[in-house]
Amino acid sequence: MDIDQQTTPEPESEPGPEAVGQTPLLERLTNVILSPGQVFGEIRGVPVDPINWAVPLVISLLAGILYSVTVFSQAGVLENMRLQQEQQFEKEVEAGRMTARDAEELQGSAERFMTPKFMMLFGIAGVIFGTPIGWLVFAFLFHWLVRLASHSHIPFSKCFEVIGLSSLVSVVQALVNMLLVVITQNLAMTLSLALAFEEFDPTNRTHALAAEIDVIRIWYFAVIAVAWSRLTRHPVATCGAWIFVLWVSFRVSWILLFVRG
Q1: Which DSSP letter does residue 12 get?
Q2: d(C-alpha 173, C-alpha 177), whole Å
Q3: SS3 of 8, please?
């Protein structure tokens, strides 16, 4: 009697990170905002895709240029900058760190450059040159923080890819801050506790500390923590704690040292 030979198919093995297809670019960029864990889980273990940082870089540059053109076209913003600078010089004179004559000369020199056209050009140049340099610095810091804190190695190129993708949150921050500056006519205004002050003064130490509690900045660091967690499989809470403690320590020390108001 013939017995039919039935071949049982072998179960398909779960694809490794290298076999997982990435979502389309537009969805990937959107998911940095909506579902960062999915994005950084996709890029774990696969070669760096230059489009993951090149497209966000272009978007970041365009957002920064829009911010500079919009903000420095506001007469009230420039006037408030002039008044805040004048108040700062007065504080320096009262503290004996500057003579009244020196303060007057410096104020006059600053006002000659404080024109909409010059400030726009200065802001745009800062965006074009400062953005990629800032990304390189952040990628370097992220690379070494991961190595020191979690004893894991993420290649520098992958760290740069993470910073590039995460910059989509900074684009949101630039647009929100632009609207706040236009509404308040104060260049230092952000979506932070600075909004609690009727007349926010960035030269005031209390005001400056309040401005550090920035909702979108916290969101940005949370996204970086998720990236760290997905790439190294360390708890996201631990990664976030490292980032926030170091950032808060740095910013509070900076304000206490250099903001004298």
Answers
A1: P
A2: 6
A3: coil
Give 230: exposed, middle or buried? Use CB within 10 Å, 0-12, 13-18, 19+. buried
> What whole-number distance in Å separates Cα of residue 257 and Cα of residue 205?
10
Find out whether 163 and 53 touch, Cβ atoms under 8 Å: yes
Q: pLDDT tens for residues 6-37?
A: 443 433 333 344 334 578 999 999 999 999 99
Tokens encoding 237? 């809470």
Q: Are 29 and 56 in contact (CB under 8 A)?
A: yes
What local confidence, expressed as pLDDT, does residue 211 receive? Answer: 94
- How far separated are the first and last CA of the chain, in Å rounded? 98
The CB-based long-range contact list for 38-41 (8 Å cut-off, 24+ gap) reads 39/165, 40/162, 40/165, 40/226, 40/227, 40/230, 40/231, 41/230
Contact between 80 and 185 (Cβ < 8 Å): yes
Predicted confidence (pLDDT) per residue in 80-113, tens digit: 988 888 888 888 788 777 888 878 888 888 888 8
Q: What are phi and psi of 9, to 5 degrees?
A: -65, 140
Tokens of 223: 């996204």
pLDDT digits (tens, 9 = 90+) for 191-210: 999 999 988 888 889 999 99
